[in-house]
Specification:
Layout (H helix, E strand, L loop, with lengths): L1 E11 L5 H19 L2 E6 L6 E10 L2 H16 L4 E12 L4
Antiparallel strand pairs: 1-3, 1-4, 2-3
Length: about 100
């Protein structure tokens, strides 16, 4: 079994409140869930209105499939004009790794 995850560090554009931040992130998270069928959540920078950390995790029987899911998610995030993708940190682990 392979476990893969990616964390996106985002700089949001014209956002001036946490309510506006939620309005930008909600469609992104829903779209990533539909596109990848993976678990997606806001995982950091909760109290900052112009920054966001989004995490996505997937479990697969094949490392190649898990990597493709992360690649697809990263392309989707990078294509959004509402924010700037500052970084994307990813990991891929096998379940029996120590």
């Amino acid at each position: 079994m392979w476990i893969a995850w990616i964390e996106f560090d985002l700089l949001l554009g014209d956002v001036h409140s946490l309510k506006q931040k939620r309005g930008v992130l909600r469609p992104l998270i829903a779209g990533l869930r539909r596109l990848t069928e993976a678990s997606v959540a806001e995982v950091g920078s909760h109290d900052l209105h112009r920054r966001a950390s989004i995490g996505l995790a997937v479990v697969s029987g094949d490392a190649g499939h898990a990597t493709e899911v992360l690649d697809r998610a990263e392309r989707q995030v990078a294509a959004h004009p509402e924010f700037t993708l500052l970084s994307a940190r990813r990991r891929l682990r096998r379940s029996d790794d120590d």
